[in-house]
Amino acid sequence: MTKTVLSLKNVCKRFGGVVVADRIDLELHAGEVMGLIGPNGAGKTTLFNLISGVVMPDEGEIALAGRVLQTLPLYRRARLGVARTWQHMRLFGSMSVLENMLVGASNYPGESLLRLVFAGKSVREAERAAREHAMGVLERMGMASLAATSVNDITFGQQKLVGLARALMSDGPCLLLDEPMGGVEGSAYETMRSIVREEAEAGRAVCVVEHNVSFIRDLCSSAVFMVQGRILERGDVRTLLESKALAELYFGK
Ligand SMILES: Nc1ncnc2c1ncn2[C@@H]1O[C@H](COP(=O)(O)OP(=O)(O)OP(=O)(O)O)[C@@H](O)[C@H]1O
Ligand SMILES: [Mg+2]
Questions:
Q1: What residue spans define the domains of the chain?
Q2: pTM value?
Q3: Which residue, 144, 184, 186, 242, shows the most beta carbons closer than 10 Å to its own?
Q4: Neighbours of 123 (CB within 10 A)
Q5: 4-249: what CATH class?
Q6: 46 CB less than 6 Å from ligand 1?
Q7: Using a 6 Å cutoff on CB, does residue 87 contact ligand 1?
């Protein structure tokens, strides 16, 4: 049986009077790419925010490989291996591609002043390892030559890839991608697809929020359809994409 990496049980969240997560039960397994689809405002990003610790649930349990997450702050969840990208990228435009990736590395020593002051050699060693890791990720994306380029000077598709590259600084078991393909085309599209596929093949549990249905069809084995904070349907990706509820509530026919 495939290993359960992430599990949500009865997760609930309200903003004011609006229910944005309504008794969500979900399991994500090692090697799986699950598509999370639904209309604007369905609560997809909120679900990622609940898992990664940006917002706390009102009720319910979230566990990563059996370890309770819902009481932990965002940085602890990142260290435990919840890696994610952001719908609105959140890159530092004036910083280089490599610097943006190092900012996202949770084990990068630069984030601890004490370590910087007291642990000279091990800090340098950790920095070197983080840079090497980052360059390895960029090489896989065919973007090593852009490492020192400012993010403002690369294309939109390349910026989206930097968002993914930053998430891949974590070796954690769980990867959440929030609209990785929005506005991406051409070679960046192909790169995104093949990297996500490789990550799943290497055993990561991946969940992708995406409005690009052909990307979902190409990449995902399973899918979940969410509307107004509720999971309405779930299952095999092809069956779900042909479901009546999806046609009516998502495609509007
Ligand atoms: N921090 C917040 N405070 C109050 N309301 C919020 C907050 N974050 C999200 N919402 C509301 O929760 C609902 C779900 O938003 P969410 O961003 O999760 O939707 P989504 O499915 O990701 O939509 P999209 O496809 O447009 O990205 C929306 O009504 C949104 O306005
Ligand atoms: Mg969203």
A1: 4-249
A2: 0.92
A3: 184
A4: 17
A5: alpha beta
A6: yes
A7: yes
